[in-house]
Each structure stands twice: as C-alpha cells, then as structure tokens.
C-alpha cells in the first residue's frame, strides 16, 4: 500500500463526515478518482452509512413512556413546608431518573437520525462540487463533445442501466457541450454538460426509481450554486458558478423541455 493510499484510508471517515477542508477534500477526490482500490473502500464505507440511515429501525415512544417523560420533566411546586413532604422512597427517585434518561435517549436518537440524513446530503454535495471542479480544471471535461443531443444521447447506450435525458436548451441560452461518465455517490453516473456564456453547468443524473417527484431545491457550497430535483424515477443535480437565479432557470427550462419531449426522447 502506497503512502497516498494509507493517508486516504486514514482520512476516509473524516472525508465522508465532511470534516476535511476544501483543499483536503479535493485532494481526496483526486486520489479516489485515480485509485480503484481506495475508491472501492470509500464506496463501501459510504454504502454502509447510507444503509444505516435508510434501514435502521426507528422505535417511537409508547404513550405510556411519553406520559412518564412528561411527568418526570414537569416542574415541582412546593406548596407546603418541606417538613410535611413525604420522605422519598427508592422507587420515587428512580422513576424520574429513568424517565429523564429515556427522554435523553429519545432526543439523542432523533437528533442522530436527522443528522445522518443531513450528513448524507452534505457529503453528496461535496462530491458533486469536487467532481465539478475537477472537470473545469481538466483539459478534457467530456467523454463525448457535441452540441447535438442525437450524438450525445446514443453515446450513453450500453454504458448505463437507464437512458439519461439529453435536452437541447440552446434556444434558452444553455448550450449543450457534451457528456461524460463520472463516479459520484458510489455509482457511475452520466453528466450532461452545458455552457452559458463562459460558465459551465454540470448536470448529474442518478436512476432513482420508486421515489416521488420533488421540485427543484437550491443550495450553495463554497461559492458554487447547486439545485437538485427528483422526476420520472431519476434524481438530478445541477451545479455551476452561475448566479442562483440563472441556475434555477436552467432547472425550470430543463424540466419543461424534458416533459414536452419525453415521448420522442
């Protein structure tokens, strides 16, 4: 194992937990892109994290436990002199402590569950950002360079288990430049590349069947804008250094045009 591989595996957990700096994350992404063994290790670790998030059992508190927690956490009002209060027994002191402990465990579980979901989304955003930066720095940002959707779309045939939509948005000011395959979120994904003036828009597409359609959701990371949505059994995420409003317009135009062209795509 090389020194780079050893360092990569030492930082894998911190990378997936988004604890590395932007420079370290980019170096990590570059190594994972070049080293198949470390990439498999990181993908396995990411898959385990996702499996815990999606398959771990969640046990809601029973009404009885909820009532005990409310009782234990209710403030005590002393309306009589302390000398007239009954002497606390072992059980009267133990039950409130048990209720408080149950409440703490319950709240910790909820917080961990919510954090896991946010953590996965944040990790995916960092992966998309790193991939986008790599492509803009590369001398060859496409595997297929063409402004013709009928040239780009067939190029993906046989390389994926689904057909990604390739939409011509030149009349709307987003010029198709080409496409490529990349490795993001532990999977090989198609990336459709568009240009607007001197800006690049990378559109990442995952097959995600069985999920309900979701409207575009914008976000930002390290000065870049991202927007993601779910439609027709696919998850799509666009990233660019365009202004947020322009990227939102890209998503809107893409959704409208893909819906109108779906039967003929």
Backbone structural class: alpha+beta
CATH topology heading of the largest domain = Phosphorylase Kinase, domain 1
Count of domains: 2
Distance between the termini: 47 Å
| SSE order, one letter for each helix or strand | HHHHHEHEEEEEEH
Percent range for helical residues?
40-55%
Main features:
265 residues; single chain; Phosphorylase Kinase, domain 1; alpha+beta; globular; 7 helices; 7-stranded antiparallel beta sheet
In a nutshell, what does this entry contain?
With 265 residues, the protein is of the alpha+beta class.
SSE diagram, text form:
Layout: H1 3-16, H2 22-34, H3 36-55, H4 63-73, H5 90-137, E1 144-145, H6 149-155, E2 175-184, E3 187-196, E4 199-207, E5 214-221, E6 224-231, E7 234-240, H7 244-261
Antiparallel strand pairs: 1-2, 2-3, 3-4, 4-7, 5-6, 6-7
Helix pairs in contact: 1-2, 1-3, 2-3, 2-5, 4-5
Can you walk me through this structure?
It is a single chain. Mean pLDDT is 80; it is low at 89-95 and 110-118. This protein has two domains: 3-56 and 115-126, no CATH class; 140-264, Phosphorylase Kinase, domain 1 (2-Layer Sandwich), CATH 3.30.200. A seven-stranded antiparallel β-sheet has the order 1-2-3-4-7-6-5, sandwiched between helices. The two termini are 47 Å apart. The chain is globular and about 65 Å long. The chain has 265 residues and is of the alpha+beta class. It has helices at 3-16, 22-34, 36-55, 63-73, 90-137, 149-155, 244-261; strands at residues 144-145, 175-184, 187-196, 199-207, 214-221, 224-231, 234-240. Strand 5 (214-221) and strand 6 (224-231) form a beta hairpin. The chain has seven helices and seven strands, in the order αααααβαββββββα.
């Amino acid at each position: 194992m090389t020194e780079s591989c050893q360092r990569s595996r030492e930082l894998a957990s911190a990378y997936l937990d988004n604890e590395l700096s932007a420079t370290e994350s980019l170096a990590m992404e570059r190594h994972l892109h070049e080293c198949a063994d470390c990439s498999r290790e990181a993908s396995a670790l990411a898959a385990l994290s996702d499996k815990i998030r999606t398959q771990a059992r969640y046990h809601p508190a029973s009404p009885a436990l909820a009532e005990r927690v409310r009782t234990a956490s209710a403030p005590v009002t002393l309306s009589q002199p302390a000398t007239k209060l009954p002497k606390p027994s072992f059980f009267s002191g133990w039950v409130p402590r048990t209720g408080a402990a149950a409440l703490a465990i319950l709240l910790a579980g909820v917080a961990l569950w919510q954090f896991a979901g946010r953590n996965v989304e944040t990790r995916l955003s960092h992966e998309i950002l790193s991939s986008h930066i790599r492509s803009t720095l590369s001398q060859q940002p496409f595997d297929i360079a063409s402004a013709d959707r009928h040239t780009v779309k067939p190029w993906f045939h046989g390389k994926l288990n689904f057909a990604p939509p390739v939409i011509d948005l030149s009349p709307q000011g987003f010029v198709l430049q080409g496409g490529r395959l990349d490795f993001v979120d532990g999977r090989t994904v198609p990336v459709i590349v568009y240009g607007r003036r001197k800006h690049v828009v990378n559109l990442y597409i995952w097959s995600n069947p069985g999920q309900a359609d979701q409207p575009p959701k914008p976000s930002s990371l390290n000065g870049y804008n991202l927007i993601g949505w779910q439609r027709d059994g696919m998850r799509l995420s666009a990233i660019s250094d365009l202004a947020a409003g322009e990227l939102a317009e890209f998503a809107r135009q893409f959704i409208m045009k893909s819906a109108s062209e779906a039967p003929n795509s």
